[in-house]
Amino acid sequence: MRNRTRFFIPVLAAGLLTAACSGGGGSSTPTGPAAGGAAGGGAAAGGSGGAFPRDETLYTSGTQWGPPANWNPLREWDFATGTKGLVYETLFMYDPNADKFTPWLAESGQWTGDLEYTLKLRKGITWSDGKPFTADDVIFTFELGKMETVPYHPLWDWMKSAEKVDDYTIKFTFVTANHQEWANHLYSRAIVPKHLWEGRSEDEVMNGVNEKPVGTGPYAYYSHDQDRMVWVKRDGWWATKALNKDVKPKYIVDIVNSSNEVAMGLLLQKGLDLSNNFLPGIANLVKGNFGIRTFYDQPPYMLPANTTWMWFNTAKKPMDDKEFRKAVAYAIDTKKIVEGVYGNLVKASDPSGLLPQWDKYVDKNVTSTLGFSYNPDKAKQLLADAGYKDRNGDGLVESPSGAKISLKLIVPAGWTDWMEAARVISSSAKAAGIDIEADFPDYNALVDVRNQGKFDLVLNNDKQLANTPWLYYDYLFRLPVQKLQSTTNFGRYENKRAWELTQQLDQVKPEDVEGMKKITSELQKIQLEDMPVVPLWYNGLWSQTTDSTWKNWPTSAPDAPKYPPTVWRNWLEMGGTLMLTELQPASAG
Amino acid sequence: MRRYFGRKLLIYGLTFFVAVTINWMIPRFMPGDPVSSMLSRANVAQPAAVEAMRAHYTAMFGFDLPLWQQYLNFWGSLLKGDLGISIWLFPTPVSDVIVRAVPYTLGLLIPSILLSWFAGNRFGAFAARRRWLDNSVLPVGYVLTATPYMWLAILLAWALGIVAGVFPVAGAYGFDLQPSLSWTFVGSLAEHWFLPFASLFLVAFGGWAIGMRNMIIYELEADYVNYLRALGAPARLVRRYAFRNAILPQVTGLALQLGVLVAGALVTEIVFSYPGLGHLILRAIQNQDFFLLQGTFLFIVIGVLIANFVIDIAYVLVDPRTRTGMGEAA
Predict the structure, then answer these.
(1) What are the φ and ψ backbone dihedral angles of A299, each rounded to 5 degrees?
(2) Subunit contact B180:A50, Cβ cutoff 8 A
(3) Residue A546 CA: distances (Å) to CA of A58, A285, A294, A581, A585
(4) Residue in B49, B91, B240 nearest the CB of A151
(5) Bridge pairing between strands A544-546 and A274-275
(6) Across the strands, what pairs with A110?
C-alpha cells in the first residue's frame, strides 16, 4: 500500500514541477536569442524592464511572413522588414505618387555623355560604426553585381565600369545606355559599407545572415524573436542635419503575420499603428467609428500597387489564337470582381494595364478604339466570327476544328480573394460560351507548371509599381522564351516587334516623356490587338492606420502627406521612410 | 529483463529507421520545387540572373544529386546532428529554428498531458463513488471529450480572449516586451500560455476522468473485491486495490496520448498562433521547406519513441505481471 503512494508522489511532483517550469521554462528560453539582442541595444533598454514605451513605439505588421532570419540587403526577397530603408539606404528616393526622384545618399546625378553618367555624393554621411561614407562604398556595391548570383548581376551586361573621380564623385560608363533601368537601379540598390563587406566570399555575400547590419539609415538593429523584429532609432542620422528630417518613433516593432484575424484584433485594440495586411471588409471599419483609416476614405480606399493580369499560355491551342484571346477578354466581368469579391477595395484596370500613376503613358486614342470592356455579346460575336461554334449544344463553344475547349484557370490555393475572383471569371466566361474552370493548386505546384508553360490560364501580379512602365512591358514581352519562364512572359508570347520596342523604351531618357509616350503608344496597340494577357484589376497598397499613438499619416486629405503609407519590402525607398519623418505623436495635441 | 529491453530497443530502432525514411520521402514526392518557389519570391527581373541563382541554390541544397545519394547524404548529416539549412528562414540552420520552438511546445504539452492525466484519474476515481458527482460533472467530461478540439479552442479564444478580453489570443508574450527575467515578462508569458494550455487540459481531462471512473466501477465489482469485503477489509483498502488495477490501462493510454497530443498541439498552436513546433510544421509545408519539415517530424518521432520507452519502464514498475513475464522469458 505504501508502495503506491511512493510511486505517485514523484509523479505528482514531476507534474507540478513541469507545470511550474512551463512558465519558467518558456521564460528562460526566449532570453536565449534575445540575450544577443539585449547586448546589441542594451544601452537603450533602460530600467523599464525591457518594455517599449507605447508613446515612443511604432507597431507595424503585414510584410513579414516568417521569423526574421537575415539582415542581408542583397536578399531582397527575405531580409527582415526594414533592412533596406531603415538601415541600408539608396542613392535616390523615388516618390511614385509625384513621379519624382529625390537625391538621397547622392547629392545629384546626371548623364554627362551618351554612355556616361556622373554621380555626386552627399558629404558628411557616416556609417553607423562611425566610418565615413564615400564613393568607394558605392563603387563596391555596384561591383558586387559582378558576382553571378547577385540579383543585379545582369547590370554588368550593359554597364562597362564604375570609376572614382574623387571621394564623392563617380563616373559610370555603359555599353548600352538603358536609361529607364538605370533610373530604377539608382533608387533600388542598397549601398553597403565596403570596409565591412570587402573580404566576404560570394557565398557569404549572397547567403550571409549579416547580423547587426551597419548602414547609413535612421534605425539600428535592436532585437528580434520568432514573431517580431525590433528596430531602434539611431543618433546621428545624416538627414537630420542635412535635410532637417527626423524619424519620430524611437522603436519600430514589426510583428510577423500569423493571420488576418490576429492583425484585425490587434488593430481594433490599437495594438497596431500601421497594418499592411490585406483585410477583407476593412471598408466597413473605415466607415464605422473604429478609429481605423486608409489612404482614401472612400473606394478604392487604397493606393494602387500592382496590376493583376490573366496570362494566356499562347503556346497552347486555342490560346494561340488572338481572336479567341480577345473574346475571353470581353467575357470577363471585372466589375463583379471589384464589387463582389473585394467590396470596392480595388479598382478595375485600364485596358492598357498600366497603373494610374503611369496614366500619362497611356495613349487614350489607342485604348478608346482598341480597348475592351465586359461585353458578353461582343465576346460571342468574336467567337462566332472566328469560327468557334457550339456544335454539341452544351452551351459552350468548340474550336473551328471541332475540338472541345475546356480550360483551367489556376490561382494558388488559400489566396481566398483570388480564388473567388477566379470563380467569377469562370462563371462569366461560361455565360459567354467559353469553358473556363477555376482550379486551385498549391502555390509551389502552381509556380512549377507556370514556369514550365504547362498551364492554360494563370493570374499573376509579380511586378510592382516603379519609376517606369518599361518594367511592365519587359514583363509582358521579354524574349527569347526560355525553357523555364520564372519571372517574365509566363504566356510565352513571341512578338519580335514588341520586344524591340521594349528595348527601345529602356533607352529613352526618363525626362523625355514624349519620347516614352511614342513607344508606349505603339506597345499598347500591339498589346490590345494581340491580347497576350488580360489586365484585370489593381491590387491595393494594403494599408490601415490608427491614430491612437501616431498621427499625420499619409491620406488623400489636402494637407496630409502623400507618401505610400507602408513598410512593405522595397517601398521604404519609395517614400516609406519619408512617411516616418512626417509622423507626429498623437499626444502632442 | 535484458531480453525485454533488448527486444524493445530493437523495435524502437526499426521504427525510427522507417519513420525517418518516410519522413525523408514525403516532402520529396510533394509537387513543386523549393528552389523555384524561393526564386519566384525573389522576383528578380532578369531571366539570366534567375538561372545563375537557381543553379547556385540547387547545388547548395544538394537537389542536383540523384535521389539515392540525397538519401545517403541525409543519413550522413543526420548522424552528425546536422539537419540542414531552412529554406524558408534562410540561412538559419534547421536545428536552431527547432530549438527555439521546442520550449514553447514542451511548456504547453508536458503540463497539460501530465496534469490532465493526474487530475483526470483522481477525479474519475472520486466520481466513481460520489453519485452526485457522477451525475453532474461527468456528463460535462463527456461533452468535453466529444467536442472537436479545434472548435473548443476557437470557442475559448473567442470567449475569454475577444469577448471578455481577459487573455491575449496571439503570440507567446506581449509585443511591447523584451524577454527578461522580470515579473512583467513572466506574467505576460503565463498570460499567453494559459488559453492554449487550458484548451488542451480540458479536452484530455474529460477523457481520463471517464476512463478512470468506468474502470473503478468495473474493478469494484470484481471477485477479489467481493472477497476482500467478505473478509471485512476497510473500504479504503478495497479502493486502493481497485485503483491500482484500474490505473494500468490508463498508463497505456498515457503513452498513446503522448503521440496523439503532438498533433493536438499543432492545432492549438495554429489557433492561438503560439510559436511552437506545430506552427513550424504548418509554415514548413506552406513554404515547401524540406529540411525544416524533416527536422520537426524527426523531433516528434524521437519524442514519441522516448515517451513510449519511459512508459515501458514505468510499466515494469507498476504492473507486476510484466515482471513475472520477464522472469518466465529469462
Answers:
(1) -50, 140
(2) yes
(3) 11, 11, 9, 17, 12
(4) B49
(5) antiparallel
(6) A118
Identify which has the larger pLDDT, A337 or B159.
A337
CB contact, 8 Å: B274 with chain A?
A: no
Interface list for A 136-175 with B (CB within 8 A): 148-154, 157
- A135 sits in which H/E element: helix A135-144
Q: Which residues of A touch B289 (CB under 8 A)?
A: none
pTM attached to this predicted model: 0.84
> A445 in contact with B at a CB cutoff of 8 Å?
yes
Q: What band does B281 get if pLDDT is binned at 50, 70 and 90?
A: confident
Q: What are phi and psi of A82, to 5 degrees?
A: 100, -10
Chain segment A333-353, per-residue pLDDT in tens:
999 999 999 999 999 999 999
For chain A positions 53-82, those within 8 Å of chain B (CB to CB) are 54, 57, 59, 66-67, 69-70, 75-78
Q: A480 — contact with chain B (CB < 8 Å)?
A: no
Rounded Cα gap, residues A547 and A290, in angstroms: 10
* Percentage of residues of chain A with pLDDT beyond 70: 91
Of the candidates A282, A268, A294, the one whose C-alpha atom is nearest the C-alpha of residue A543 is A294
The region that residue B177 occupies, defined by phi over 0 for left and psi between -120 and 50 for alpha, beta otherwise, is beta
Per-residue pLDDT tens digits for A361-390 = 999 999 999 999 999 999 999 999 999 999
Q: Which amino acid is at A231?
A: W
Ramachandran angles phi, psi of B12, nearest 5°: -65, -40
The span from the first CA to the last CA of chain B, in angstroms, equals 7
Q: Three-state SS string across A209-258, please?
A: CCCCCCCCCCEEEEEEECCEEEEEECCCCHHHHHCCCCCCCCEEEEECCC
Identify the bridge partners of residue A170 per DSSP, sorted by sequence position. Answer: A119, A164
Residue B320 at interface with chain A, using a CB cutoff of 8 Å: no
